[in-house]
Each structure stands twice: as structure tokens, then as C-alpha cells.
Amino acid sequence: MVDMPALIQAMLRPELYPDRPAAVELVQTQMSFLLLAGGYVYKVKKPVNLGYLDYTTLEQRRNFCEREVELNRRLCPDIYLGVVPVIERGGQVALGGAGEAVEYAVKMRRLRRERMLDVLLVDEAVTARMMTALAGKLARFHARAATGPEISRFGELDALRVNTEENFSQTYDYIGRTIAPEKYRRIKDYTDGFLESNAALFRRRAAGGRIRDCHGDLHAAHVCFSAGICIYDCIEFNDRFRYCDVASETAFLAMDLDHYGRADLSGHFARSYARQSGDDELAALLKFYKCYRAYVRGKVEGFKLHDPYISPEDKRLTLKVAGSYFDLAGAYTRSRPLLLVMMGLVGTGKTTVAQLLARRLGLEVISSDVTRKKLAGVPLREPHRDEFDTGLYAAGFTRRTYDRMFREARKTLGRGDSVVLDASFIKAGERGAASALAGETAADFFVVECVLDESSIKSRLAGRLAGHPVSDGRPEILEPQKKRYEPVTGMPESYIRVDTSGDMDEVVTEIVRRVE
Fold first, then answer.
1. What angle do CA 388, 380, 415 make, to 5 degrees?
2. What tens digit of pLDDT does each residue of 212-260 get?
């Protein structure tokens, strides 16, 4: 019998495949090896037992390959082509034909990587209209997905407690490594309390047909906007993970959009789904299920630390990613929305910090650079090198920009969602207006001042200009801005000052610790 690593090495040979691709690329997940061969993908399951899935025997892997094709054809009928036996003949490996099957592979058409939602998010190419279309596809899928007593029981309180308690028991040994002890306790207390106080709502959902045979793993990397919308790679290995409330599935993708720093798209997607599905109870459940889904993602990332196929470098990255999901899960437990105000001179890293905070705390970023150019009706990346306090940067236009930011923030905070205002906020009056807004909307309030030595500021600004940024910040603005700078006074408890010359992840970790 061929062992798994040797088999995968053999499957990297292009001559093995009927269409003779120029090269074969290997991609690994925790559960599978993916062989990218020309226009097709061959997916081989790893012989692992992770507790919630068991692929240890060849027969199990064959059965789950067949199940994967059957289930995924519900949402991507043209992508999943079938199951191919991997044959050993005379010590050589072949795809199909006579001989002993030593492995099985799911054969799929290869989707366009550049049209995957996770890639489009990084490229800033996702629109609200795309989210509306995706919400509609999901709502239609849920409407026709199987349900019934055997499925509906997975939405009842006892079943939900099994799922959540499993989360906490499976992450207990990771406390102090991927999740801080106080965060573990806070999320567990929130989860137990929400289940207890909303028992009637969960019973109503189960009785009302809201528990369906869903996709089960709906995050951005499993959505492709190519020739329509393909939602692929559903969970086949454990029915319990697919049988869930449609609100839980919707929250999964909404949470992932938050994790990409796009809480604006997350909110639009969730509201659009509720409208198109007629689910008036979704809003009441969204943060609970977002918390649950973020916790699961943190848990699964942590499991990679024990994967023998994952490199030490990837394991170091895993620690960071797992921690970011647990930060996000913790953020959903807040009883009040959060309003963060970035503050600092040009080039001190305010936008970078704001975006990283958005990913880890589920914040909607409202940017003065973006708001200013939208108000002016000019392309976001069109440079405007106005002198300080003139043109788009004149005092009157700056007031209009801040007023618009405050209006947008008021709307978001009013829904109970959190915001980070990304602007210089060098004037005490601007910070005072933000503080008043927090009081008006019952939001927790913090000012985060970014500081950096002048030499580093000028170096960053010089490098920034080559990249066609949205910001028009440049070295010659620094001196006049310094003259107008009004230091923070009178708010020590809600004031956080960070030096951004070091590792940004460490900077953000300290801010997260302070605002929790």
C-alpha cells in the first residue's frame, strides 16, 4: 500500500492526468490535499481523525468523497464532476482503470482564483450589489433545503448546548496559547446566558422550519463570483455541522466579512438576507451566531498546531489567526457598541491600525480620506495635492467631511454595531463631538493616538506616494499640521497612546486589551 505522502508526491506528476497539464500545484488544508492540474482540481482527503470527522479508513474516505459530490451539487452542479479512484499498478500510481484502488479523489472543475470572494475582498473589488445577489442566492437555497423533525432537533436548546459545550471543551487545553483565560470565560458566560434567556426564541425557530440542511462552512473562500455565484466545499463529514439555523449560516459569512475588515458589507449582506428571506428574527440572533462561528474558526485554526503536514512557519501564523478569531468572538459579546476615534499626524499609521482593529473587533471603518473624496465627487485614488487648509482640505470642507462621518457613525451605532473613525482628529473640538456622539448612542468611547518619530513619518510618506493611495498625505503637510495639533487632555481612561514604530500586530493587541 502506498503511504499518503508518497502518493501525493506521485500525484504531482503532470503525466498522471489525462489532459497533461503543464504543472501540478499542491495546496493543503487541514483535512485535504488539493492537486491543481490544469483546468481541474483533484481533492484527496487526509487519513485523519479530528474527533468531529474521521477519514482514517479508505472506505470512509471513498464514502465521504461521494457524499461531498452529492451535497455540493446542490449549489454548484456544474463544478463537481465525480469521484476518481487512484489506482496502484505495478508499483505505479494511475487515475482510474484496472487495479487496486489505494485512494479516492473528488474531481472538480477549477474555479477562477481571482474571482473568489476572499481574493476580491483583498483587492477591494466587492460591492454592496454583489452582497445583495449573494444574499438572494443563499435565501433561495435555504428555502428549498431539506428540513423535518430529524433536522429541526439540531436547532433545539439541548442540541445547541452540545455544540457550544463541545467548543469550550475542545479549546480548554488551548487557554493561554490561542485564547486568553479571561476571554474564554467571558465568551462562555455570554454563550450560556444567551441560550438560557432566549430559550423560547430557539424553540420557535425549530418549530417554524428555520433549521435546514445547510452548507455548513460558508465563509469567503468558499464563494466564487464567476459565471454566476458558486458556493462550494460544503461540509460532508458531519451532518450535525450542516443541520443548523439559517441564521447561523448567514452569521458565518457575515462574521467572515467582519474578519476581512468589511463590517459595512457584513451588515449589508445580513440585512439583505433578512429582507429577501423574510426572516424578521435574524437581527436578534446575529451576534450570538457570529460569536459562535468566530469561536469555531478560532478553534479549528488552533487544531492546525498539531497537524504534521503544516510547517513551523505556518503554525506561527496559525497562532495569530486563531487569536484574531477569538478576539472577534469576544467583541460580539459586548453589551454596548464601541466607538473608536483614531488620532495622529499624517503618516503615523492611523489607517493601518484602524483596519487591523476592524478585523479583530468587527468595526465598521469610516474613513475621512474616503468620505472627503466621495463628497467631492472625485475618484478615490485620484491625487489632490492641495496646499494645507485649501481646496478639498480647506476648513469648511473638512467640517463637511467630519459631519458626514458622524452621520454615518450615528446610523451604525444606532443599530448596535461598532465603528472606528479613521481621521487625524487633531482638534479638541472634533474629539469632543465624537465623544458626544458616543454618549448620544450609548457607545463605549476611546481615542487612539498614533505617534511616530518624524524621520519615520517622512520615510513612510515618501514610500506611500508611489502606491497611488486614497490618502493625499505627503511630507509637506507635516509641519503645518503639527502647528495646529491640539494634545489630548481630560480623558485619561478613554485615551490610548501607541507608538507605531514597532510590530503593528503587537500595537493592535495592546489596543484590543485596553478596550475590552
1. 100
2. 999 999 999 999 999 899 999 999 999 999 999 999 999 999 999 999 9
Residues 127 and 150 in one domain: yes
Q: Which residue among 52, 81, 110 closes a domain?
A: 110
Tell whether 477 and 379 lie within a shared domain. Answer: yes
- For residue 394, the 8-state DSSP code is S
Write the single-letter amino acid at 485. Y
Question: pLDDT tens-digit profile of 346-403?
Answer: 999 999 999 999 999 999 999 999 999 999 898 887 776 767 777 777 889 899 999 9
317 and 218 in one domain?
A: yes
pLDDT in tens, 436-489: 999 999 999 999 999 999 999 988 887 776 656 777 666 778 888 899 999 998
Picking from 94, 110, 126, the residue at the C-terminal end of a domain is: 110
Instruction: Report angle CA 272, 276, 281 to the nearest 5 degrees.
Output: 80
Quote the CA–CA distance of 237 and 245 in Å, as a whole number: 18
Domain of 457? Answer: 338-515
Comparing CA positions, the residue from 89, 87, 90, 83 lying closest to residue 102 is 87
Tally of domains within the chain: 3
- Read off the DSSP letter of residue 512: H
Q: What is the pLDDT of residue 5?
A: 83
| Cα separation, 394 vs 97, whole angstroms | 74
